């Protein structure tokens, strides 16, 4: 009909216009984000250049001072970060970024060591075994944990957790010794329960079975710790560590940072890994079970490989966050630029150093540029981690696509 | 804790607008002609002091507001050079490079005005039996360069002749690049280097809090941050005299770890100060201004020095009006 066609065409043209506008806006937004990212990198690089190729006003810092140990130094700490006291004097510059990079990686490693097993275990359990009702409660709670600001976690870790752990070192050790085998034992006990009880608490709810055991084991650890300390460590664990192993115990140490940052990283690793695991088509798992695989075999041989790209990127995102996290490390690490293997020593990260020192460093000065170099290092590092994660993820995804697994 | 939270935002501007609308009624007749906004950029140690002085000034002259940006002493010289502010509170004197930059830009040196005294105290846990430290011992504890002449480093409490607390001494201090850390390094470490083990906190309050919860800890902090949880140590000089960091010793300069707090002014020589700035300096050096200093835990300037400063700045000498 000719008379109804004209309003339709107007409407169509309007819709096309709207679509085009949306496309332009989305494209502009995407390009804007990429441009902003590039601009940050370029800005940092440009600001850092005078460190190496001095212009008239600033002098250069030698590569050796940045990356190599101090020469002819008698003291054991040969990598030193001490820019304010040595720059602009005739002393050898102590501006090694090595201890800061070390601290950053050490903190991230401890955080991942604590977060990844817990997060992946929780993800596998909640995606595959947990009852939907329990899962619908658990997931939002863990996501709420993710929204907790780093300052709050750092505050609690540095001012509450760290002194407590320091005072109750033996308790913490006893917990470590008791919890892992104790909880495994409790899990095994569940399968031996009389069938009537097992029906009252099916596999989906078995997680709750562990809660009383957890409380019991914690109080047992607390009760046993003085005895353990007296029996194995001559009454004073700290003294024993110092004399036997030569380890000093700092109040704010790498373990505390790892615990706090692990807590911060865990929810995001959990959420991504859980999505990846529950994205694996049920048909795969059901097929495996129909062929006679146990639940455990299904998880280990079928579901985990199919979800591995997603799990890998979850861990990498966790690593990226742990490397860049500032406030937790700033408040819980003690900011001592040490380079030791002792997990009970303090550490200092690149991000925390930038946060503390940049406000006091005069713009354009040598110290300022050094801090920007540290920022560039962080930028490059997270860029590499994320790129690597993406590459591995696409490759793994291609390999497992024939399984029909999504990620 | 507030110090840490403050530092979370230290790189952004900390803008504090001051106003005291309730003071309108008590306005003095001669005061009403002075009005304007004073901008100040600089030390965070002096932030509380500047705020209180600003409040007192607005009470006297309701037309004047003080706008403060407190992001560290190092932020004052660039702001003064660029002309974005005329007042720069600093917790340390300007160094040569900063001074030179100012003269290059403006053609005259900045005016320096000491406005209060502050001291650094060495603190230990309240149950620590230690009462005093010699200057060599202090250097041997905090530094590994030992430029003050100690023969060996002090790592354990036992080396100080104490059997309690046991174990290693845990060191706490301010972050690198802060004025406080610089002063401690210059005086207590004889320009040496801190041990890398020193825990660096982004504020004196955080140092005191860390020391208060650990019997093995020692730290240094600004005098005005002392809490009941920690004990301040006296300083033993070479002749065996002990100086406790009490206001009297700080004012006289007997306690070596003390310093002046400064206001720097961009003020061309020969010109008279703008009325608002003049009123502010007047207030700062007046007994009322100095009693604010004492209230906040700093130490007031001795009377004679205050008079000298007032004369040098060409401020009015009568104090009858205040």
UniProtKB/TrEMBL annotation, chain A:
Please list the residue ranges annotated as the ABC transmembrane type-1 domain: 101-389
Which parts pass through the membrane? Answer: 21-46, 107-130, 142-164, 170-191, 203-224, 254-273, 302-323, 370-392
Which key words tag this protein in UniProt? Membrane, Transmembrane, Transmembrane helix, Transport
Record's subcellular location: Cell membrane
Q: Membrane topology per the record?
A: Multi-pass membrane protein
The answer to keyword Transmembrane helix applying to this record is yes
| Transmembrane helix keyword on record | yes
Q: Where would you say this protein principally sits, based on its record? A: membrane
Stored InterPro entries: MetI-like, MetI-like_sf
To which protein family does this belong?
Belongs to the binding-protein-dependent transport system permease family.
Q: Write down what this protein is called.
A: ABC transporter permease subunit
């Amino acid at each position: 009909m000719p008379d109804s066609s004209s309003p339709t065409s107007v409407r169509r043209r309007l819709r096309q216009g709207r679509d085009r506008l949306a496309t332009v806006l989305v494209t502009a937004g995407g390009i804007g984000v990429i441009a902003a990212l590039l601009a940050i990198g370029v800005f940092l690089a440009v600001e850092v250049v005078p460190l190496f190729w001095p212009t008239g006003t600033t002098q250069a810092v030698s590569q050796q001072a940045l990356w190599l140990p101090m020469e002819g130094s008698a003291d054991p700490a040969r990598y030193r970060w001490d820019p304010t006291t040595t720059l602009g004097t005739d002393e050898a510059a102590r501006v090694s970024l090595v201890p800061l990079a070390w601290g950053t990686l050490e903190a991230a490693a401890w955080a991942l060591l604590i977060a990844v097993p817990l997060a992946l275990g929780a993800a596998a359990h909640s995606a595959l075994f947990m009852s939907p009702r329990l899962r619908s409660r658990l997931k939002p709670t863990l996501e709420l944990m993710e929204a907790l600001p780093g300052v709050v976690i750092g505050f609690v870790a540095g001012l509450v957790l760290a002194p407590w752990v320091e005072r109750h070192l033996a308790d913490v050790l006893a917990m470590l010794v008791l919890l892992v085998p104790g909880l495994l034992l409790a899990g095994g006990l569940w399968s031996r329960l009389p069938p009537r009880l097992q029906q009252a608490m099916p596999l989906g709810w078995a997680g709750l079975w562990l809660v009383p055991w957890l409380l019991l084991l914690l109080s047992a650890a607390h009760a046993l710790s003085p005895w353990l300390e007296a029996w194995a460590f001559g009454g004073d664990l700290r003294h024993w560590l110092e004399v036997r192993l030569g380890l000093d115990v700092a109040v704010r140490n790498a373990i505390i940072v790892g615990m706090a940052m692990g807590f911060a990283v865990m929810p995001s690793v959990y959420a991504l890994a859980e999505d990846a695991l529950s994205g694996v088509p049920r048909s795969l798992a059901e097929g495996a079970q129909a062929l006679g695989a146990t639940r455990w075999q299904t998880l280990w041989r079928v579901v985990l490989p199919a979800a591995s790209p997603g799990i890998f990127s979850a861990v990498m995102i966790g690593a990226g966050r742990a490397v860049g996290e500032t406030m937790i490390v700033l408040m819980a690490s003690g900011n001592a630029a040490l380079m030791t293997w002792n997990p009970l020593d303090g550490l200092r990260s690149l991000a925390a150093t930038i946060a503390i020192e940049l406000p006091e460093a005069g713009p354009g000065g040598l110290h300022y540029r050094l801090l920007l170099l540290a920022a560039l290092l962080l930028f490059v590092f997270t860029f590499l981690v994320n790129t690597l994660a993406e590459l591995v993820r696409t490759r793994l995804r291609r390999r497992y696509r024939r399984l029909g697994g999504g990620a | 804790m507030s110090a840490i939270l403050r530092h979370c935002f230290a790189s952004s501007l900390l803008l504090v607008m001051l106003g005291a609308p309730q003071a309108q009624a008590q306005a003095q007749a001669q005061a009403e002609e002075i009005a304007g906004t004073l901008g100040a950029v600089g030390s965070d140690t002096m932030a509380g002091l500047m705020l209180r002085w600003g409040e007192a000034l607005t009470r006297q002259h309701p037309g004047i507001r003080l706008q403060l940006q407190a992001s560290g002493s190092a932020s004052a010289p660039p702001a003064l050079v660029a002309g974005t502010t005329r007042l720069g509170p600093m917790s340390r004197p300007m160094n040569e490079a900063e001074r030179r930059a100012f003269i290059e830009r403006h053609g005259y040196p900045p005016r320096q005005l000491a406005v209060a005294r502050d001291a650094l105290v060495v603190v230990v846990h309240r149950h620590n039996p230690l009462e005093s430290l010699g200057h060599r011992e202090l250097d041997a504890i905090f530094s590994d360069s030992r430029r003050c002449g100690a023969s060996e480093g002090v790592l354990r409490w036992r080396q100080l002749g104490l059997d309690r607390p046991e174990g290693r001494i845990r060191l706490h201090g301010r972050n690198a690049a802060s004025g406080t850390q610089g002063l401690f390094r210059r005086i207590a470490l004889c320009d040496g280097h801190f041990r890398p083990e020193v825990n660096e906190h982004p504020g004196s309050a955080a140092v005191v809090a860390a020391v208060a919860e650990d019997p093995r800890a020692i730290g240094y902090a600004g005098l005005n941050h002392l809490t009941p949880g920690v004990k301040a140590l006296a300083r033993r000089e070479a002749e065996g005299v002990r100086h406790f960091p009490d206001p009297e010793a700080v004012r006289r300069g007997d306690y070596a770890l003390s310093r002046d707090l400064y206001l720097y002014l961009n003020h061309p020589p020969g010109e008279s100060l703008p009325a608002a700035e003049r009123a502010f300096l007047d207030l700062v050096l007046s007994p009322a201004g100095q009693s604010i200093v004492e209230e906040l835990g700093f130490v007031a300037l001795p009377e004679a020095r205050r008079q000298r400063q007032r004369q040098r700045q060409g401020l009015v000498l009568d104090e009858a009006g205040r």
